[in-house]
Amino acid sequence: MSAAVVPARRLRGGAWRRFLRDREGMSGLVVLVLFGLVAIFASLLADPAGLEVTKADGPLAAPPSGAYPLGTDHAGRSLLTMVIHGSQVTLLVGLAATVISMVLGTLIGITSGHFSGMLGGGLNRLTEWFLVIPYLPLAIVLATVFPPDVPKLIAVIIVIGVTSWSGTARLVRAQTMAIEARPYLERARALGGGHWHQMTRHVLPNVMPLVLANTTLTVSLAIIAETTLSFLGLGDPLRVSWGRILDEAYSQAAIDRGAWWWILFPGIAVVLVVRAFNMCGRALERILDPRLEGKP
Questions:
Q1: What's the confidence (pLDDT) of residue 175?
Q2: Is 45 within the bounds of a domain?
Q3: Largest pairwise CA distance in the chain
Q4: C-beta of residue 50 within 8 angstroms of C-beta of residue 291
């Protein structure tokens, strides 16, 4: 059996059945499904009008009660409504930025691992440059200098995506170089297979399990990045996200007011989603990498 087709087969029904038997992975998946349903049906679960300050009619900075299960903010808006609708922006930014990061990381990683000389070396130096540059300051600088005519939400997605691909590229490059030394790649080259054929038909299927497992971990990092940028006031001011809720809580001195609920509940939402993605990622690593099977 050709080694090139093994990873593709491991991604089929057998891998899914093993995932269903993985308690950690299934626990994370259940949490993600619940938050996904909340984001999809946010308008049905909570009236979007409750996000407008002018239409808020609740008590100011009130603790959790029967009428407001998660309490209210300084304007009298229900924190439950804000957390529900904030899940849409936070998950959208996390998933969209991860797609950009994975595409860039996979493309650059395979190319730098496949080609030698100036092209491969140059891409490797670029990857190392992004790895050594502090991630958060770079993201803050890019978010600050982004053209003002670009929607802020799109800008945040692009900034997170283009600053978080280097780790994936490094992993993919190492895997690509290991695959390049296998006999079937030598046979493909001897039979006249070009670079595109080798990279797409032999290398890409072998690195996809690694990319898939790393994707779930990257989503959690992208969500943390969005929360951080929004907390620093660099997010979309017209949309509610969990990071923006925390930013408003900080700017309105929620700690000094004793409004613990204003910080606790959006913080818990971030922690749960990030932890759930990490749990799914760890499960996928164990399933797709035979060397990790049976390890906790």
A1: 87
A2: no
A3: 75
A4: no
Q: Which of 168, 164, 144 is nearest to 155 (CA)?
A: 144
Q: Which two tokens stand for residue 59?
A: 């008590």
Rounded-to-integer distance, Cα 123 and Cα 111, Å: 8
Residue 77 exposure: Cα atoms within 13 Å on the Cβ side: 25
pLDDT at 211 exceeding the cut of 90: no
Q: How many structural domains compose the chain?
A: 1
19 occurs within a structural domain: yes
State pLDDT tens for residues 157-186.
888 888 888 888 998 998 888 887 777 777
36: in domain? yes
Give the model confidence (pLDDT) of 108-142 as tens digits. Answer: 999 998 888 888 889 989 998 888 888 778 888 88
| pTM score | 0.82
5 lies in some domain: no
Within a 13 Å sphere around the CA of 274, how many CA atoms are in the beta-carbon half?
Answer: 16
